[in-house]
Design goal:
alpha+beta, Thiol Ester Dehydrase, Chain A, six-stranded antiparallel β-sheet, 2 helices, 40% strand, globular
């Protein structure tokens, strides 16, 4: 069960991230410091994507694992800026993507993202997603920080 502090921290980031069910892919922030974030996604059989991916053999789509890493990266970046409520992070690039194992219902997907460099408004991070300590996916993510009012 999440502590009061953990719930408050997740609530804070839910207010900052634009994603909501079924595309909010972070259930818990496990650790957050200057250059690293660890987050968790509980992968449930009730996820809508399992209906068609694949019937009788459900597998979490790799693109959604990368999206979970990108949301984790946004949490890390939002934690470092002064006015996070007025900023959004737009994914601008995904490099060095590798998928190592399937992610299936019942898995707990633990993400870790590390800041490689940033020169505002550009950010570059490396992310890994693991299940029970085993590497499931990895990627380098690039993003641009934009003021919310500048979005179309």
């Amino acid at each position: 069960m999440a502590s009061k502090e953990e719930r408050a921290q997740l609530d804070r980031f839910l207010r900052l991230l634009p994603h909501r069910y079924p595309f909010l892919l972070v259930d818990r922030v496990l650790e957050l410091d200057g250059a690293r974030a660890r987050t968790l996604k509980n992968v449930s059989i009730n996820e809508p994507f399992f209906t068609g991916h694949f019937p009788g053999n459900p597998v979490m789509p790799g693109v959604l694992i990368i999206e979970a890493l990108a949301q984790s990266a946004a949490i890390l970046a939002l934690n470092q800026i002064e006015d996070p409520g007025s900023r959004l992070f737009m994914l601008t690039g995904i490099d060095k993507v590798r998928f190592r194992r399937k992610v299936v219902p019942g898995d707990q997907l633990e993400m870790e993202v590390n800041l490689l460099k940033h020169h505002r408004p550009l950010w570059k991070m490396r992310g890994e997603a693991r299940v029970a300590g085993e590497l499931a996916a990895q990627a380098e993510l690039s993003a641009m920080e934009v003021a919310e009012e500048k979005l179309p």
